[in-house]
Design a protein that fits this description.
With 353 residues, the protein is α/β, with parallel strands linked by helices. It is built from 14 helices and 11 strands.
């Protein structure tokens, strides 16, 4: 049995097509549509608390009896630097002023890391989704062991071989090889360390050769041909995120969808200015603001994200969408708008042909 067939059997799904979790974009409706079409649907719960996660899982299960993938963030808790925060807010003040608004008086850590969220762990152990995945690092051995004992399959994101080996040593069942082309937040363990910026194909092939567990290719894969190419390189499956942003079930707002269809799709860029961590976005006003900035002037993730969301809200209230977190990968020009289930069916036909 091939690596792909074995993984699909274990996950109880039909096709090696995984929808990326995409916190803030994916929905229970999207995940259910993908899973019902034979792929692996996913939700990201890094931006909600345990109660919110339970509600999202329940909403999925009202629509699908198939497998669900739930993603959590394992970032290091932010270091509160009040002086850095004050300087950052002053830097953003002119941008807020464009929209007759003022920056917040203070910023907070809006997302709690799974590494210290006992309530989220308890919810996942109670709900037992088929898959739980880790982004930005790994939780403690105790948390990993608890999830494994509950029969949950574990994935972890790696951007290089060192991170992938850390996942393997921790007993993670499959590794998501996130290439530099991928949209959204880089899964790097340490955002301040040197980034080798390995592309999806090179990283996938490297991890397939070096690891003794399934590898899931992720980054700029938008159609069946891309999925087939990843499988030929030895990946057990492909994970697609940007491909699903324009789907009917996505939470992407009108400005995000319009930008995805614009010239900005051809000019994605990596930025830390929006959230405090490197993330690939459509080129917009916020990414332009962050161009060439010293990362040391930006507060830690997710404190910086509190300011980013406030600026986006102020601009959006005046009809300007260019300050949003319009995460997208380098495959953005190939985006297709349709219901998620129809997209999975199309991807399966393209892959098989």
């Amino acid at each position: 049995m091939t690596s792909s067939a074995h993984l699909l059997q274990r996950l109880e799904i039909d096709a090696p097509i995984f929808q990326a979790p995409m916190a803030g974009v994916s929905t229970p409706e999207m995940a259910a549509a993908v899973s019902n079409a034979g792929g692996l649907g996913a939700i990201g719960v890094g931006a909600v608390d345990a109660r919110g996660a339970a509600q999202m899982i329940a909403a999925f299960r009202e629509l699908s009896a198939r497998s669900l993938h739930v993603n959590v963030f394992c970032h290091a808790p932010a270091r509160a630097d009040l002086e850095r925060v004050a300087r950052w807010l002053e830097r953003l003040r002119p941008e807020f002023a464009r929209f007759d608004a003022a920056p917040p008086s203070a910023l907070r850590e809006i997302y709690r890391s799974f590494t210290e969220d006992d309530a989220m762990l308890a919810t996942l152990l109670e709900q037992r989704p088929k898959v739980v995945s880790f982004h930005f690092g790994l939780p403690s051995r105790e948390r990993i062991d608890a999830l494994r004992a509950a029969g949950i399959v574990l994935f972890g994101t790696a951007t290089n071989l060192e991170e992938a080996r850390a996942h393997a040593t921790a007993g993670i069942d499959a590794v998501v090889a996130q290439g530099y082309e991928a949209g959204g937040h880089r899964g790097v363990f340490d955002p301040d360390a040197d980034d080798a910026r390995l592309g999806t194909l090179a990283l996938t092939r490297l991890l397939v050769r070096e690891l003794d567990r399934p590898v899931i290719a992720a980054g700029a894969i938008m159609d069946g041909a891309g999925i087939a190419a990843a499988l030929r390189l030895g990946a057990a499956a492909a994970q697609l995120g940007t491909a699903f942003i324009a789907c009917d079930e996505s939470l992407a707002d009108a400005g995000y969808r319009a930008a995805l269809k614009s010239d900005a799709a051809h000019h994605t860029t990596m930025t830390r200015a929006i959230s405090g961590r490197p993330a690939r976005s459509l080129a917009n006003r916020f990414t332009a603001l962050g161009r060439d900035l010293d990362p040391n002037v930006i507060p830690d993730y997710p404190i910086a994200y509190d300011a980013g969301k406030a600026l986006h809200a102020a601009a959006k209230a005046k009809g300007e969408y260019g300050y949003g977190a319009q995460w997208a990968g380098q495959g953005a020009p190939f985006s297709r708008a349709m219901p998620a289930g129809e997209l999975v069916a199309m991807l399966r036909r393209e892959m098989e042909s």
